[in-house]
Amino acid sequence: MSGTTLEQFSYDNKIVKYFGAATVIWGLAGMLIGVIAATQLFLPEANMGNPYTTFGRIRPLHTNAVIFAFVGNAIFAGVYYSMPRLLKAPMWNKTLSWFHFWGWQAIILSAVITLPLGLTSSKEYAELEWPIDIAIAVVWVAFGANMIGTLITRREKHMYVAIWFYLASFVTVAVLHIFNSLALPVSLFKSYSAYAGVQDALVQWWYGHNAVAFFLTTPFLGLMYYYLPKAANRPVYSYKLSIIHFWSLIFIYIWAGPHHLLYTALPEWAQVLGVAFSVMLIAPSWGGMVNGLLTLRGAWDKVRVDPVLKFMVVAVTAYGMATFEGPLLSLKNVNAIAHYTDWIVAHVHIGGLGWNGFLTFSMLYWLWPKMWRTNLYSVKLANTHFWLGTLGILFYALPMYVAALTQSLMWKEFGEAGRLAYPNFLETVIQIVPMYMLRAFGGVLYLSGAILMVYNLIKTAAAGSFQEEEADEAPALAKHVPTGGEFWHRAWERKPVFFTVLATVAILIGGVVEIIPTILIKSNVPTISSVEPYTPLELQGRDLYISNGCVGCHSQMIRPFRNETERYGEYSKAGEFVYDRPFLWGSKRTGPDLHRVGGKYPDSWHYHHMVDPRTMSPGSLMPPYPWMTTTIMDHSSIGAKIRTMMKLGVPYPEGYDETAIDDLRAQAESIVAGLKESGVEVLPETEIVALIAYLQRLGTDISKTTSANP
Fold first, then answer.
1. Any transmembrane segments, and where (predicted)?
2. Is 489 annotated as a binding residue?
């Protein structure tokens, strides 16, 4: 290229090092919390006898740590290394890069503090309260601004496929996070969702499913498209397949959220759309897997000896398995078996441990020697990590599949007399305890492998010399580029803003079609005249239920199956949830469904069950909550809570926020008097009284004989 002036610049490896180190540190923390949570499911003593370390509170801590801390930091490390090199330009603004790094770590730290304290919205994968949600949005936008700034200052004419996925991930996560997090604050760490009941469920799983899609999948596909060809020293198998893969994936994925709500009170049309698009998803997903695996043509001899490629092959295969299983689970007949069982837990962890975990490990093993200008300290240790991790996944997932089939078959079994063969939910729980033990063992194996990796990376760094700034040179981007005769997608790749707008339109269509009619057309949620707002004490009890993460083990959604109506009572109706902010339908039954528990047991039963579950339910694995009988609940916020609910449309009487405390005290005194007759002495301000009030309300708005629209 005679006569072309080369511009000199450098890439910042320091930010990559910091994000990589954060990936490792938070990864170990998240996995350790996961092992503790897995142990709690067969050993209640592992809840450690205090409110901060119970399963209900550390489960969301585990999911947030592995998704947003471990996987999130891995995404950022991968993007900050690959994007500048693909665009032949340093990241646009170093200050934004470091604001992003420290802001993200501060958000994670706030989650570590608030979730064990019970400060939660209870929305799955979106548990953090409103001030932290705002911080997430600000830091995420800073990340996106830095990416777009780098695109504008690039020296490379076209955007490589990895960058398509980075851009789509940025835009979609921003949209999902903002709309799902809409809430009205009550106080600094308490808010109520802008949506109620059915609408809240749909918006949450539009977010929840697509958080998996656009945080755990599309950014990692971008990383796969960069790091797998680099590690294999082979070009991507098919450019045209990557185009089909990208556009079909981001368009179809956004529609699939309702498959999490099959056989629930969600309108049937939304369920059908969710199933149809979920089944279609297998094509683009497998297109990506095939493109990844076929990139290794001619390099399979390297896979045998290179641990980086070993991890990548299993990661891409796990992606293929998880994206086959997802559409399978979205079929209504399969979902009827799998939903609320451990099958869903197994499915999520095949993707999390296999796809996200292994691709992250491979990327770190590839990056560390590059940045420290040395060789990996020990290939043998990396191979040992690979086999420990692989065995860990097998010991985790296979017992969960066995547990799931056991759960589903026992829940649905009827005896010769036409009655439930196993009417006591605990009979199922006791049967699957050995599977829970094996699952925890698998977690220990996986964590052990990660610890070996940390040692290996530390020794690799010690043996080398870190290159903080990596020099490069390239000609400036030509200002006028002829467009005639250029392949249409190549033309799009030269226009990053236009490309981003197209991606945004593609992801908005599905959400708009599903969510807006559910909110605006009232016939989607038939009302039931007997359903009334929660009393002030019940509202306090509900918030306590949310704070303790009870929804992590108990559903509140009885599906229209004979075994469920026989076991729990009348199936759930959409109109029963119109005052539920947030909805609490749950996604897993480690304990029985509670939607019709109101009036089923006396108040004293609930009291003793919370103090020591095994006295009321021998063999129960639920942790005891004895502190609830002595912890005084602060009811001073009830006026603010009632006012917030009224602003959201809950029909409390005018001025009720001023008198609500009187009704609260009267109901508390009534419960205390009833407990006293049963030989239980307790103060009316204690947490247990509010929780009993809420539990005794559940499902009592309609009786079994009520004929309401389903």
1. 18-43, 63-83, 95-118, 130-152, 164-186, 206-227, 239-257, 269-296, 308-324, 344-366, 386-404, 436-458, 497-520
2. no
